[in-house]
Amino acid sequence: MSQPEWAVRPPHPALRRRISRYVGYTQQGVTLTVHRGLPSRHVTLIISLADKIRLLGRADFTAPVGGMHVRPALIGQDSYQCGVHVELDPLGIPALLGVSSGELSDQVVELGDLGSPRLARLPERLAAAENWPRRFDILDEVFLAEAAENEPAPEVDWAWQRMIRAAGRVRVATLADEVGWSRRHFGERFRRELGLSPKQAARVLRFERAGALLRRGRADLAELAVDSGYYDQAHLTNEWRELAGCTPGVWIAEELPFLQDQDGEMTADSGA
Prior knowledge:
Layout: E1 5-9, E2 19-27, E3 34-37, E4 43-48, E5 53-55, E6 60-61, E7 64-66, E8 73-76, E9 81-88, H1 93-97, H2 101-104, E10 108-110, H3 117-120, H4 122-128, H5 132-146, H6 154-165, H7 172-179, H8 183-194, H9 198-215, H10 221-227, H11 233-244, H12 248-254
Antiparallel strand pairs: 1-2, 2-9, 3-8, 4-7, 4-9, 5-6, 5-8, 7-10
C-alpha cells in the first residue's frame, strides 16, 4: 500500500464545541479488505469522494452518519479510497443534523436522508472542490448554516465533558450526585440526548483510551489495562471482544499496521 495522504483541520471556532475536527484522506493500494469501525466518543460522518462506502450486512452509502454504538461496524474496503471524516460530538447532533443522538443510536443513515437540502448537497460540493482547504471551508459554511439554538441540558453536557476528561473512569452515581439528579433520572436524560446510557458511554471512553495507547506503542497489555480503567488484562480483553469483535492482539496484528495516530502528526490544511 502506498503511503496514505492526510489533511486535518479544526472547524470554525464557533463549531469547535460540537465538532472535533475534519480529516481528509486519500489511500491507494489498500490490502485490508475489511476494516473495523470501532466505538468512540463521536458520532461519525464520512463523506466518500470515491466509490460508495460498503457497510457489511447493512447497505452502501455515499455519506453515512453513524450514531453512538458499542459494537464494531464492519466496512468493506476498496483498493482506492478518498473522502472526508468528520468527528461530531453527540450533543451537537440536534443543532447540526436536525435529529437527536438517541435517534441515531446504533444506526447508520445516509446524510441526504436527514431532510436538509444543504446537507444532501455536501458530497457533490466537496467532490467538485479543488483541494482540502476549500473542502474544509465548505464544511464550515454548511455546518454554521445548519447550527441552531438547540443546546442540550446543561447537566448532561457537563456530565459528558466530565466523563471525557476522565476517559470514562468516573462512577455514574458520582455524576448523578454532582448534577443533583437521581441516578435513574440522570440515566434517562443522558441516554435520550447521547444515544447511550452513562455506563455504555463510560465503556466506550475506556475502550477509546486503550486504543489510543495501543496506537502510541504501549505493548504491555496488563499495564495498559490498569491505565485505561480496567480491573486487569482479562477485563480489557473481554471488553475488546465485545466492542471491537476481536482481542487486542488480533486488532494489533490485523489493523494497527494500516493506521496511524493522527493526534499531532498531520498539519492543518495539508494535502491537496
